[in-house]
Amino acid sequence: MGITIGSHYVHNLFSNQLDSQNQNWPMYLADSYNSGHFDSSVDLSDEDVRENTLATFEGDHVTSPVLVDGNFFVCSYRDENYSIYKVENGDKDLIVTSEYEDDSVNPSYSDRTTPAINDGMVYITTSYGINAFDIETGTKVWFTELRGIHSPPTVLDGSVYLAVPTSTTSDSGFVSLDSQTGEIEWEFDTGAVSHANHDFAVAVSENNAILSDNDGYVNSVSASTGETNWEFTKEDSAGRSPSPGIPTIIDETIYCNISGEIVALNLNTGDQIWDFSYDAGHSLGAPAVANDTVIGFDDLGKVYGLNREDGTLAWTTDEMTGGARKITISDNMIFFYRGERIDVYDIETGTTLNKIESSELATSSDGDDYSINSMGPLTSNGISVIARSDDLSLSIITEGSDESDEEEPNEEDDAIVTIFQQSRAAVDNPLLLGAGGVTVAGMSYAGYKYLNTDDDDSTKPPETTDSNTSARPSSSAQQSPKTELKIPDITSFEDLSTTETIKTYGQFQVATASTSTGNDVWVIIPSTDNKTIPSEEYEALVDQLVPWSQMDAHPHLLTVFEHGSDPLPWAAIEPADSPTLTEQVDEFSTQEVLEILRDVCDGVHHVKRYGMTYEQLSMDSILVDDEGTAKLRGILDHLASSKPTYELPDTDEDPTTDQADVYRLGALAYETITGSLPDHPDVTPPSVHDSAVSAELDDVLLLAVAIRPADRQDTVLHLRDQFQAIISS
Questions:
Q1: Higher confidence at residue 403 or residue 528?
Q2: CB under 8 Å, gap of 24 or more: what pairs does 443-447 form?
Q3: How far apart (Å, rounded) are the C-alpha atoms in residues 99 and 78?
Q4: Which domain holds residue 562?
Q5: How many DSSP H helices and E strands does the chain contain?
Q6: Distance between CA 443 and CA 13 in Å, rounded?
Q7: Which of 235, 250, 602, 644 has its CA 20 to 30 A from that of 204?
């Protein structure tokens, strides 16, 4: 079949960059006060709106995004694991992929699992508890088991607050945890029957943590100790449901929906300032406040504008279908998510300014399946949403009609990528004679590159598993290279002038090249034995280059400077011209070998963070320069062979786990030090081969190459730290 790309994707490829005005929205409702407010004049009153897709994700559910320093953060959940992503200007970086903490219970997830970002950490909840991950390294810092969590995390002043059934009863309550360790600081039991409200979020100020419960009470406790400050309940003579809502703190006042009403309470005393009855007897959401207007909504879908001073009605909208979900506000507009649509109102008058329907944002490629799943932070030029068509996507809805309404390319029955001799890139390139310009049936190159780099979750899923050791591994490399790598300016294949072939690896060849600014690089391009490449082989070539090309530069991994698919799949890489460890091993002392192995652990861990397994690890994989800096060949090893050098001792063992990585590194260390491979089942201690090996190093290596994965070090970083400890001693 031909390769096709919808105009929806082509349009998004050329969309404007996101301008966040450096405002932060680090939690579910913007901040610890649950304000849901963005200090800007966002304007979506024009009927012509469009959807800018920033990133797509695989998974069963993607949380509402949060926004910190111009970066969006989301969590994508699947049956077997979940992944946390950072998205900046359309570039999707995976922070970590983690398995669930209890595989005996099916996971559940919804908007309540929206992450919270604070002080370089991301906090995320599952059905089993709450996790904290280091954003830069993807390391799981801690996990605390709290079954049946009701809320997204609220983080303030070194503590994490959650609405959750207490550990001693099945009643509802809330809990405070130390943000650095996950230790429970205090628990508070409201005494109400637990109610799984996916919108619960604890509101926290400097001295107060506020939560409403399912018995119709608003509870205030000390944010630092959990001791009761006050309790408020609403007498209801109309027989309404004592349903809880999300409290919002603005200045010294709490606004909260409860028992079909909205109440304003004094933050410090709990005394009622005013109340207002909704037409419906039920509302679960959080009110919002802008200037002198309090915005509330009920289950009839009506939105109410109330005078902030006394709670009198300023305006109300008509009843709307779709139910009440979530409300966020700018200085002058209200954005009301109702399920598959967003209504926009004027804050001062309640006038309907726009109704943004999922069907209006859908393109011909989406069909009837496109829908808005949730609403996230406002930005200076629109509002973020999670939407679903074929995939789940993070998008910005912004002003402006879609000007890329070209007809969608026709599908071809027999797609062949043809390499013509008339390529402009081939004119001065002896390697590409007879292999010139590329034509892709049914699509443009720009569209194809976009589709194969931004829509494929398989390119970057770093994994982590829980550590059974008490010591947390350090998160950074112990040693930086002595010479800083200079990144050449390469934006397209035309910036490169290739000279001679170094080596051919199956479908690829590696050649030397120079840039227009005189930098020497190596370039990976397809072999040119054939003049045509079937489309499936073309895609396979691109798929092999993309994962390595999207990795951040690392001091102990060969760097891929740039890649592309025009006029053919290519990647410019750092020259791999240093000798290998195999060629130099006899020149190194045991101390120097351990320093090399330590650095290799860092390189393997970096690859793992992007969801790839370094199965081709060997002594030939490691380049060591004149200054003793070790660097993995990375993409070159991946292209050279798919066969692992070090076979796992049990053929049934999963080769993609952390413990499998530990084994391969242990086998590499064993071979480097002893000159032979581990001899299972009873591995000879390395000191038998080399008397200079210490008993401590014996223990570390024998543990790493143990037959049972559970007997090995938990992660590559733990093995690295053990190497470092021996070096330091």
A1: 528
A2: 443/2, 443/3, 443/4, 443/5, 443/409, 444/5, 444/10, 445/565, 445/566, 445/567, 446/10, 446/13, 446/566, 447/5, 447/9, 447/10, 447/13
A3: 10
A4: 416-442+475-573
A5: 11, 44
A6: 14
A7: 235
Exposure pattern of 315-330 as b/e (b: 16+ CB <10 Å)? bbbeebeeebbbbbbb
- Look up residue 9 and give its two tokens: 């994707």
pLDDT above 80: residue 420: no
CATH number at 679 reads 1.10.510.10
Measured distance between the N- and C-terminal CA atoms of the chain, rounded to whole angstroms: 62
**8 Å CB contact between 148 and 165:** yes
Alpha carbons 588 and 591: distance in angstroms, whole number: 8
Neighbours of 443 (CB within 10 A): 22
Same domain, 149 and 262: yes
How far is Cα 537 from Cα 534, in angstroms, rounded to an integer? 5
Please state, in angstroms and rounded to a whole number, the distance separating the CA atoms of residues 392 and 85.
13
For residue 150, the model assigns a pLDDT of 62
Give yes or no for residue 267 having a pLDDT over 90.
yes
Residue where a domain stops, chosen among 548, 573, 598:
573
Tokens of residue 139, six digits: 């390391």
Helix axes 695-704, 658-674, angle to 10 degrees: 140
Pair (544, 671) in one structural domain: no
Please state, in angstroms and rounded to a whole number, the distance separating the CA atoms of residues 480 and 629: 8
Is 70 exceeded by the pLDDT of residue 104?
no
- How high is the mean pLDDT of the chain? 77
pLDDT for 244 beyond 80: no
Gap between the Cα atoms of 157 and 222, Å rounded: 13
Both 511 and 586 in a single domain?
A: no
Total domains, the chain: 3
Which three-class secondary structure state does DSSP give residue 135? coil
By CB neighbour count within 10 A (0-12 exposed, 13-18 middle, 19+ buried), where does 504 fall? middle
Place of tokens 């309090």: 294
Position 448 scores a pLDDT of 28
Residue that finishes a domain, picked among 371, 399, 427? 399
Please report, for the domain that includes residue 261, its CATH number. 2.130.10.10
Most confident residue range from 8-12, 88-92, 311-315 = 311-315
Nearest by Cα to 426 from 545, 531, 534, 543: 531
Residue 404 located in a structural domain: no
Q: Residues 513-524: pLDDT tens digits?
A: 888 777 788 888
* 435 and 304 part of one domain: no
Closest CA to 76 of 101, 97, 52, 105: 97
253 occurs within a structural domain: yes
Whether residue 463 is contained in a domain is answered as no
Same domain, 63 and 135: yes
pTM score, two decimals? 0.56
What average pLDDT score do residues 329-351 get?
A: 88
pLDDT, residue 195, reads 46
Contact, 75 vs 115, CB < 8 A?
Answer: yes
Same domain for 130 and 276?
yes
Looking at the fold, whether 657 and 710 belong to one and the same domain comes out as yes
Whether the predicted pLDDT of 718 surpasses 70: yes
**Do 188 and 101 have their domain in common?**
yes
- List, as own/partner pairs, every contact residues 494-502 make where C-beta atoms lie below 8 angstroms and the sequence separation is at least 24, other chains included: 494/424, 494/425, 496/521, 496/523, 496/570, 496/572, 497/428, 497/429, 498/429, 498/430, 498/431, 498/432, 498/523, 498/525, 499/430, 500/431, 501/431
Torsion sign, CA atoms 366, 372, 373, 374: positive
User: What digits encode the pLDDT tens for the residues 194-237?
Assistant: 444 444 789 999 899 998 876 778 899 999 999 999 999 876 65
Nearest Cα to Cα of residue 600 among 576, 626, 620, 575: 620
